[in-house]
Design brief:
By secondary structure, the protein is an alpha/beta fold. It contains 16 helices and 7 strands. The longest helix is centred in the C-terminal third of the chain and has 35 residues, at 329-363. It is globular.
Length: 368
């Protein structure tokens, strides 16, 4: 059982074996100019992504749904979702971004006003700074608590879901508050409501998520099938990306500042964090020069892999030089820390401009 609200690490291979997620690598040759996260296997699995490949190839309409839960600061691991949204925006997809303030309240106890402030100051500001264009009409963002269409649809769909099913999927116990029981239905409605007639009718949809969110995907796909006659839903597709490892090992987490590089960190602070990150180095320089480093177990290399090195050839050289013992950890850390500082310098400048725009984005006052 997978808990979408825990910070436990995920066994990716077991996820594929037990829950029927398909390896994404089987589709990569069918995708024109796949983005970095796809090319490098960071997006590792999917459900029904062939529908999206077909829609892109035939230049048909499709929808991307990707929520944000505003309960803490946004770190560099969250950037993977924004990178995907930017790529899909270039593919002319309609993008829906629910702000999961109801989930934040039920699962984390964060009140609605605090969620709204987090959404504006952290998430929307960073989405803009990273390059998502909210001026385009194909991007729609909303607070769950203020979207009547979503809440009404959640109520209608909950007619065909029972308590036993929710317990089996999520492991809910007798101590779980009722708001927490209901909020997965809101997320189901977040994903399915773009297929309602008022939003253009049924169309393929893709939900890019981390693997911890798969319970929501499975529930949504099951419910879409149950209501296919009533709403003519097309069962939504999904992709799954690997989590970036925290700076100290384990999962990167907003609630554990030492594990994360936050997008609101100063460039100098982020640079220091990279320099202190766990590496895949050997016990001494002599041993490493003879045996080579272990980039597959190196957090600094992960930062390069996921975010900092765009060129696949450059990344391959770093990997080879580390494995062969010609690149030492100190040199690699220095390179990565400089790249991180440069990235945060750029984001910091963009964030200042984005702060003013973020409020307008959520209020709907931003001019397209």
């Amino acid at each position: 059982m997978i808990d979408p609200w825990s910070s436990a690490l995920i066994n990716y291979e077991k996820l594929i074996e037990q829950f029927g997620i398909k390896p994404f690598g089987d589709l990569i040759t069918d995708i024109e100019n796949p983005p970095m996260l796809m090319r490098r296997g960071i997006i590792f699995g999917h459900r029904d992504y062939g529908k999206i490949v077909k829609a892109m190839r035939e230049e048909k309409e499709f929808t991307v749904v990707s929520g944000m839960m505003p309960s803490g600061k946004m770190h560099i691991g969250h950037k993977m979702i924004v990178d995907q949204l930017i790529w899909y925006q270039k593919k002319s997809a309609d993008i829906y971004i629910p702000i999961a303030d109801m989930e934040s309240y039920s699962a984390r106890g964060v009140d609605f006003e605090t969620s709204r402030k987090f959404a504006i100051s952290e998430y929307i500001t960073n989405y803009i700074a990273l390059g998502l264009d909210f001026r385009r009409k194909n991007v729609k963002i909303y607070l769950q608590s203020e979207n009547k269409t979503v809440s009404d649809l959640a109520y209608l769909l909950s007619r065909k879901v029972n308590l036993s099913e929710m317990k089996a999927i999520y492991g809910f116990s007798g101590n779980t508050n009722l708001a927490h029981f209901f909020v997965p239905m809101i997320q189901v409605a977040d994903i399915l409501h773009p297929q309602l007639e008022e939003f253009g009718g049924p169309k393929p949809s893709i939900v890019p998520v981390g693997p911890d969110q798969d319970p929501h995907i499975r529930l949504t796909r099951d419910i879409a099938e149950r209501f296919k006659t009533s709403f003519k839903f097309i069962t939504p597709s999904s992709t799954y990306h690997r989590f970036i490892t925290g700076l100290t090992g384990g999962k990167m987490s907003s609630s554990k500042p030492k594990t994360a590089i936050f997008l609101s960190d100063s460039p100098e602070e982020a640079q220091k964090k990279v320099m202190s990150a766990k590496t895949g180095g050997r016990e001494s320089l002599d041993v490493q020069s003879r045996l080579g480093g272990v980039p597959d177990d190196c957090i600094v290399y992960e930062l390069l892999l996921y975010h900092l090195v765009e060129s696949d050839d450059e990344l391959a050289k770093i990997y080879h030089d580390c494995k062969s013992g010609t690149l030492m950890c100190g040199e690699c850390k220095n390179k990565a820390s400089r790249m991180m500082k440069k990235f945060l310098d750029h984001i910091s400048d963009k964030r200042e401009d984005a702060k003013e725009m973020a409020e307008e984005v959520l209020s709907g006052d931003l001019k397209c």
